[in-house]
Design a protein that fits this description.
By secondary structure, the chain is of the alpha+beta class. The chain has three helices and 13 strands, in the order αββββββββαββββαβ. The strands form two sheets. Strands 1-2-3-4-5-10-11-13 form an eight-stranded antiparallel barrel. Keywords: Signal.
């Protein structure tokens, strides 16, 4: 919550500082979901952007040996700065900070025989109980990228915009929890051990997602 409030406070200060300036808005779609940005000038070749994006979808996947129904939620709030190397040039270098609310929730799916394969062992779903988890990332994430489009240029009101960059999410935090085992005490103890091993494997599998690629395209309008 602290990171989110900091990003929002920074955006509010920027908006207040440029309350009388010319502004533009951009509607976008891309790997961060569907979103929008408010754009206003800071210096002759420097613009600031404040925006948000959101999207969610469900899919089936496997982590280690366990099959899951996964729900990915993309939600970001950002404050970005666009440096146009030449006045009114569409090309820009972009940097900023993002409140990163991206996360994945996971619910284990039994196979056609009503079993789970956990750490290479077969368990009846009726005895395992509930097995679910999730993946979350650092809330504060720096962003670096390049882009095309200067919504505040003086030649036209409607323009195309594009962003290509990377969001540094840091080390993903994996969670896998089992509860409600109805098997024997010994079997439940072994199940807990196997779930712990699966959690370690899952965390290792998602370490490759420290950097999230950002590809966006949009249309902007200058007021």
């Amino acid at each position: 919550m602290y990171i989110k409030n900091t990003v929002l406070a920074a955006a509010a200060l920027l908006l207040a500082a440029s309350a009388q300036a010319q502004i533009a808005v951009t509607a976008e779609v891309g790997t961060t979901g569907v979103g929008a940005h408010l754009i206003f000038p800071m210096e002759k070749t420097l613009n600031a952007r404040f925006g948000a994006s959101y999207f969610q979808y469900k899919y089936n996947d496997t982590a280690s040996t366990v099959h899951y129904t996964m729900k990915a939620k993309l939600q970001n709030i950002d404050v970005l700065f666009d440096w146009h190397l030449i006045d009114n040039s569409p090309f820009r270098l972009t940097g900023g900070v993002v409140y990163n609310g991206n996360k994945v929730s996971m619910v284990a799916r039994q196979d056609s025989n009503g079993n789970y394969n956990i750490n290479g062992k077969t368990y009846a779903a009726s005895q395992v109980g509930i097995l679910n988890g999730g993946i979350e990332y650092n809330k504060g994430a720096p962003y670096l990228g390049v882009g095309w489009g200067n919504a505040l240029s003086t030649d036209k009101k409607w323009q195309f915009s594009a962003d290509v960059g990377a969001l540094w999410q840091g080390h993903p935090n994996g969670r896998l929890v089992q509860s409600g085992c109805t098997a024997t005490s010994a079997a439940c103890t072994q199940l807990a051990r196997d779930v712990a091993v699966e959690r370690v494997k899952m965390e290792a599998d998602v370490q490759a997602y420290k950097v999230y690629p950002v590809l966006r395209a949009g249309v902007s309008y200058r007021f």
